[in-house]
Amino acid sequence: xxxxxxxxxxxxxxxxxxxxxxxxxxxxxxxxxxxxxxxxxxxxxxxxxxxxxxxxxxxxxxxxxxxxxxxxxxxxxxxxxxxxxxxxxxxxxxxxxxxxxxxxxxxxxxxxxxxxxxxxxxxxxxxxxxxxxxxxxxxxxxxxxxxxxxxxxxxxxxxxxxxxxxxxxxxxxxxxxxxxxxxxxxxxxxxxxxxxxxxxxxxxxxxxxxxxxxxxxxxxxxxxxxxxxxxxxxxxxxxxxxxxxxxxxxxxxxxxxxxxxxxxxxxxxxxxxxxxxxxxxxxxxxxxxxxxxxxxxxxxxxxxxxxxxxxxxxxxxxxxxxxxxxxxxxxxxxxxxxxxxxxxxxxxxxxxxxxxxxxxxxxxxxxxxxxxxxx
Amino acid sequence: xxxxxxxxxxxxxxxxxxxxxxxxxxxxxxxxxxxxxxxxxxxxxxxxxxxxxxxxxxxxxxxxxxxxxxxxxxxxxxxxxxxxxxxxxxxxxxxxxxxxxxxxxxxxxxxxxxxxxxxxxxxxxxxxxxxxxxxxxxxxxxxxxxxxxxxxxxxxxxxxxxxxxxxxxxxxxxxxxxxxxxxxxxxxxxxxxxxxxxxxxxxxxxxxxxxxxxxxxxxxxxxxxxx
Lengths: 375, 227
Ligand SMILES: Nc1ncnc2c1ncn2[C@@H]1O[C@H](COP(=O)(O)OP(=O)(O)O)[C@@H](O)[C@H]1O
Ligand SMILES: [Mg+2]
Fold this sequence. Notes:
By secondary structure, chain A is α+β, with helices and mostly antiparallel strands. In chain A, α8 runs parallel beside α11 (335-365) and α10 runs antiparallel to α11. Chain A contains 12 helices and 10 strands. The longest helix of chain A has 44 residues, at 230-273. Chain A has 2 domains: 2-48 and 235-373, no CATH class; 70-223, no CATH class. Bound molecules: adenosine-5'-diphosphate (ADP) and magnesium ion. Magnesium ion binds at residues 47-48, 169 of chain B.
């Protein structure tokens, strides 16, 4: 019945009630939509790194005085458990000639299987006997096509394939590089040792165990290698995005704050207009607590209606923002979206109740006789 | 018979800036259970202030107010609220019904505050509205009722929790003679059923219904007949 009383009071000033609800709707929509978008943005970015989350990069410990990884370490690591694949890698900078042009670029040594595992060949094949595979930017910049000849240190290679452009990676950047076989690399640069090892763990939980094993069996006496796990980089990216999202939410929160002030305002008006009624209710037996409750219900009703509508509309809001900025709304239907909506609804409710509390408290503190005498 | 209302040397002094308004100037009064009394006096003499003291809506500046044996100065806000709710019924000059509620719901209101369930409330509210002759108007809002009907709803509301004392501040002040007489008849019948009725008025026609008239002027009781 108190609820009914609150409801009827809100119906009495329909326009005002609707405006207050719209305020909450907008506030909740802003918070939820931005939350949805923020999560979508994070996922879109992380998605690009998804397949490297289980990757670890083993580099020489430069601080320990090592600039390369020798063969024995590579074969030790190849025998270790937890790993799905091990790709030892050599690289060297070198001048490269193509027809009458020359450029300085990175040469990687990899085998065909590793190329398949790490990259995608866009044109040609990944054949490496006497031939090479070229990164997309380099090919474009030097206008190289499959079948052209490039010269690295007086040795001529046929371009067997051109790689598809790769996004940002932490392990190896092939876009401006040339990949040749290990045999050719050793012959050209006379380099036995490796510059890095790219390995993939079977499961993410094994990363710590693998690191421990490396520490025990390779780094026990002398720190020879460092293990860099891409997971920790991903974690840092996630963290950065969470901070961005928080910032966006804070901005959206301002609109909810405005809605809260408007509720405070209309409820103060309402308590003032109904002072006499409050007096009557006190006279016929309503306690302070009852008056407080009736007014809080009013705030709660505004909050519930506004938040639920706002939460619902934010699905569309989130959809359009994602579509506009990320060009895709494929992350819309997820737990994160649900969470964002619940979060918006929660803040909407809290705002309404907090804003309603002061007027309700004021109403409950009125002295019965003062209230009754009020005209 | 014992006193259901007892005022001992009650003062009410309002301070407006440097000016002091003495609304009640040492009022002592006893009302026995089952009495029907009229408090009469000119406008501004302190009648409403006196009635509000009895109704525990206001607190005296000095003196004691005892209602149904309770020293009201010793009660906190919740206890005073309960006393109003369970032993006192108010009838105001402007009816003071809640505009959003129907006649029935207005009568239910004091029972809601007492925590009665819906069935009990509706049953009793219907009975009371029937008693004041409004069985056909139960679902009307106050704005759809005449002044006399509104005041009868107000009486029904005042009776909701079976009060011992009925306090009426100029109950016929806004009504035509005929409606006013109906109201006074209802009050007289209630008094016959045992309810103590205290009516504030400056209308001699109203005071004729009372067994005793208490005259007040400038915050002081003039005539203590029957005390
Ligand atoms: N809240 C108040 N503040 C100041 N003066 C008041 C207040 N309430 C009543 N008074 C004064 O007290 C006196 C008695 O008022 P009231 O009891 O309303 O008289 P009545 O009901 O007999 O007309 C009047 O002079 C009135 O102006
Ligand atoms: Mg008066």
